[in-house]
Amino acid sequence: MDVNIEPGWKEQLKEEFDKPYFSELVNFVKTEYRSNTCYPAGSRIFSAFDYCSFDEVKVVIIGQDPYHGVGQANGLCFSVNDGIAMPPSLINIFKEIETDLEIPFPETGNLERWAKQGVLLLNATLTVRAHQAGSHQNKGWEKFTDAVIKCISDKKEKVVFLLWGGFAKKKGAKINKNKHCVLTSGHPSPLSANRGYWFGNKHFSKVNEYLLQTDQTKIQW
């Protein structure tokens, strides 16, 4: 199946695109986008891959669903379009960066700048119906994103995986921890963060320490 995605990923995932489940998934997504308002925009569904090519991946952050509010989702997990109010989880991410690295709070919640440095911002499910969280779960996206994680784990070395919350930790079962760095913590959502499972994890400085130790360039968070 011909999928409009960054060429390096297209090559790595070509077997996945030809599997029956992926055809069924594409048909489901096309029907949903015709019949309902869905996010992100159709052209942004694979933005995580388009902004961060396979060859450039150094860090992987795993989210769950795209945001389902108007104008929020831009195809990168936890990220919102310029000019959109930051959701609570993203605010808590920036608060942790502020205390961990003393980087001031940014003006925008658009994380394209991270993606362009080699951070794959991967949601487990890449589409959602407006105002209906989880509405596109269990349709095939999770199988596809499991394959993406396994592909990175098998074919690359010294990648940092950030697994925040129980859902992301389950996705981490595909990662070879002997050749990659895996950091886990609670989710940055207020429910988890306010109970002490997020703040103070220092993941952002730890990522950069590992990258420098392995002769890679650090991320400008």
Automatic annotation (TrEMBL):
Enzyme Commission number: 3.2.2.27
Function: Excises uracil residues from the DNA which can arise as a result of misincorporation of dUMP residues by DNA polymerase or due to deamination of cytosine.
Subcellular location field: Cytoplasm
InterPro entries hit by this protein: UDG_fam1, Ura-DNA_Glyclase_AS, Uracil-DNA_glycosylase-like, Uracil-DNA_glycosylase-like_sf
SMART domains, alphabetized: UDG (SM00986), UreE_C (SM00987)
Gene it is expressed from: ung
GO CC list: cytoplasm
Catalytic activity entry: Hydrolyzes single-stranded DNA or mismatched double-stranded DNA and polynucleotides, releasing free uracil
Principal location: cytoplasm
One Gene Ontology MF term: uracil DNA N-glycosylase activity
Positions of the catalytic residues: 65
Keyword list, A-Z: Cytoplasm, DNA damage, DNA repair, Hydrolase
Protein name in the entry: Uracil-DNA glycosylase
Family according to the record: Belongs to the uracil-DNA glycosylase (UDG) superfamily. UNG family.
Keyword DNA repair: yes
Positions of the Uracil-DNA glycosylase-like domain: 49-211
Enzyme class: hydrolase
GO biological process terms, semicolon-separated: base-excision repair, AP site formation via deaminated base removal
UniProt KW DNA damage keyword: yes
SUPFAM superfamilies: Uracil-DNA glycosylase-like (SSF52141)
